Amino acid sequence: MEIIAKKRSTIGKKVRILRKEQLVPAAVFGKGKQSTPISLAASLAEKLLKSTGESTLLDIAIEGENEPRKALISEIQRNAVTGKLQHINFHEVSLKDKITANVPIEFVGQSPAVKSGEGILITLIDEIEVECLPANLPSHFEVDISNLNKVGEFITVEALKYDKDRITIEPDKNELLIKVDYAEQLEEEVAASVEEIEVTGEKPKEEGEETEEKKEPKEEKTETKKESNS
Per the database record, which ranges form the Large ribosomal subunit protein bL25 L25 domain (predicted)? Predict the structure, then answer.
């Protein structure tokens, strides 16, 4: 996927001006390279984040440069109050060097045990760390759960389909991805947790004491996280 971007000289607190112009400040980092401040259209950036993830190899076409840069999304910052996109960091990669990235797992199909109402699905891993060349990086792993017929059945890392000659997966092959548990058992655990909270809950706030919910958020408060299209 190609992204059109422009180099920017606006940095620091002045990037607020860019955001008012519906632009998102970003930067491209690379091993042994100086970071390049860039900006891209906010609408394009949001569209990008909805359709890609950390494991999607991108072509960043920067105005004034002859060749696009190969990169991955490494960090996303959003305003903690409004959720508005604040900044994106891209990690430039070499097609000749192996990289490490988290690849999302997509569970498809329907478990007969869940359909009957006997059990519920417990997802233990929804993304997995891999090592490979950028060109071999999968966008996601697909796992069919339609063979989970009974409570207690599960699927492990070993079930993932990939080219073992080109991709190395970090977790042990016997590690669980997803399992079917008794629905009633989970309901009892949840009820027990709620009861414990009611018994050991925090004491009421003293009159005049400010709670976290009532604190006025700072204007530039941001939240940093990684998004995936899982």
Answer: 5-90
